[in-house]
Specification:
The chain is built from 27 helices and 41 strands. By secondary structure, the protein is α/β, with parallel strands linked by helices. Helix 5 packs across helix 10. The mean pLDDT is about 90. Bound molecules: pyridoxal-5'-phosphate.
Length: about 850
Amino acid sequence: MSYTIETIAERIGARRVGDTPATIDWLLTDSRSLSFPEETLFFALTTKRNDGARYIPDLYSRGVRNFVVSKETYKKVESGELGQFSTLNFLVVSNPLKALQKLAEQHREQFQIPVIGITGSNGKTIVKEWLHQLLSPERVIVRSPRSYNSQIGVPLSVWQMNEQSELAIFEAGISEMGEMRALQNIIKPTIGILTNIGGAHQENFFSLQEKCMEKLTLFKNCDVIIYNGDDEFISNCVAKSMLSAREIAWSRKDMERPLFISKVEKKEDCTVISYRYLDMDNTFMLPFIDDASIENSLNCLAACLYLMLPAGKITERMTTLEPVAMRLEVKEGKNGCLLINDSYNSDLASLDIALDFLYRRSQSNGLKRTLILSDMLETGQNAPTLYRKVSQLASSRGIERIIGVGGEISSCAARFDMEKAFYPNTEALLHAISRGELRLENEIILIKGARQFGFDALTEELEKKVHETILEVNLGAMIANLNYYRSQLRPETKMVCMVKASAYGAGSYEIAKTLQEHHVDYLAVAVADEGSELRKTGITASIIIMNPEMTAFKTMFDYKLEPEVYSFHLLDALIKEAEKEGITNFPIHIKLDTGMHRLGFAAGDMPRLIERLKGQDAVIARSVFSHFVGSDASQFDAFTREQIDTFEVASMQLQEAFPHKILRHICNSAGIERFPGAQFDMVRLGIGLYGVSPIDNSIKNNVSTLKTTILQIREVPGEDTVGYSRKGHLTRDSRIAALPIGYADGLNRHLGNGHAYCLVNGQRAPYVGNICMDVCMIDVTDIDCKEGDTVEIFGDHLPITVLSDILETIPYEVLTSISTRVKRVYYQD
Ligand SMILES: *Cc1c(COP(=O)(O)O)cnc(C)c1O
């Protein structure tokens, strides 16, 4: 329904500034939900945490022209503080929230339809959604979106009523005394449902009673009210409140009550409920067995009976009630897991519902039943009692494995008699998963955490991403490669592992952590920032900085990052800075140029270098090294031997000048394999660690696999073209699949137009047309595949060297080009 801006101004008693004609369909309080700017009226609400006035300039630029503002806000408008506006309407009121409520109240006045108002401590949203499921086949129903039940949510819900509405269902929730009156005014329910009054928050009786009475004010002018007649506390409050409404109090004990529940029989996966209403006996089956669901269904039953839904229809629809989606979300997880995400509050009742749901889901699929549970906050019970109950509940629903997160639940670990693991916080759990220490496979997993625990990140981690490009990193394969190269070394030879450039694209932290656990002697990165990042995440191994920047000496001192030193200029600056900081014997690594002619001291610089080092005690040479130019190819073997000889002499000169041991090293991956006599004291392993043999481009144990999925498949006639600039010519009618990966992800544009292929279900699918920034197209005409199927860009089955050869480059470049927006996923067999 729409109103003119004049009508609205009049109804809320606003002073109107501006005379732009406007018709309003939408009310907005949260600028993020804007969709129809021209027909929207924005209420600039001021809350404790936020001032809606801040959003006016942004909304104005997005086309909103109608604003309800407070007098204070309007002063800011007048003073130009919020920018300059033309052609718009300001409705100035003393309190924008009150204006919003008033507008909703008057809107409500126009409708004579039944309106159900639901309040209570728990179950409001479920009762609302279930009533909708039960009653909507016959009626056009308007209801609160999600759980819009607050002082702001209720007016926005009521605003949705229109000429077509035949029944309305609204929730009302309060956080402070006195709030219900305002909500009553807006909702004006004709049917009231009180779900329950929770004692969960441990209030004393009087405040609980006060709370109950406050809630009952919602029902002031109701024709009928519905509640649990067996709850003495509620019954007493209702009696005291002297409401004039008819009552449908349901009871399992008292036959005199208007709705008598004669039998509640819990079966394995459903509950059979018999009832008597107006002298008629009937039965229905509810597909849930937890107490909260039973209570919710009885409240729904009473409302349906009152609205004269025939008993047969009630029975029919009760059996198909579904869990309310916003609470329990089922998602497909990785490794054959099924995830049940319960973002609802974490009390025992809701745990029971969720466990029941999990149990029923698990019966047909044979998955292992797992519960991931955080500390349950605000239950008002002491930890030992609470977790004993949780453990009992879990066992009764066949839970086979518990993963607890938080201090409290961890302290009660002993109470759980099943496979178990406990973590102090969500980060620790995530970490265990990403490192492969905790493996979840073929399990049905209930994820239930209190809000503070931020389980969203957990769900995200476990969820199978269908539209995602990932780089899968096999840590086990990397360790196998490490061990292979170690087996080529004398036992006393030390090793530097190169984790520069994000560990050749694989992601430096996880790789460094794994290498550290395998006791490599040094890690090496390119710049100081890469090193400090590793330190911050807990890497304690020695780290060499290959390209130390003059501006980053302080970072290096602070984080104990050992720089490579390749020139007198750098050495002098470093010594000066170290002396200023009062640092002594800071380890450095001397780089010699033996033929690469990139960086390094020349052999002839040795005497001067020795002299410079001797004249100070700020830094100390920990190692001396050089780098091969062509150790991978036999055509350069003579040159490589020259390099070794030059290094031998110059490095020896340095060593002989000092009493302490200076480690000497020159071999890279290829050098380790081809020049075993040149191991000296240490070697530097790079590409070999990541599985690519630098000698013949063969793959040892493949570490990185770049994967994506098919977004869309279409049939394209043979005479059409695919992609930008009409480059993708077809030779026949074709099936073309689009993939969510492009050159911005590191898929080189030169691979397009049939120059290369990827693998779809093991078969080669050539790239068609130009590769775009974020997407590319492939030809799958002869491949049996569907949308959502996995595609391998390179990796276990399509060696990366195939791509690097086509691109006339080296695998190093392909690996390090994969952009950071591609998520790295680690696993370890
Ligand atoms: C990158 C690098 C290495 C490792 O080389 P690979 O060919 O990957 O084994 C060794 N030493 C230095 C100085 C490097 O920069």
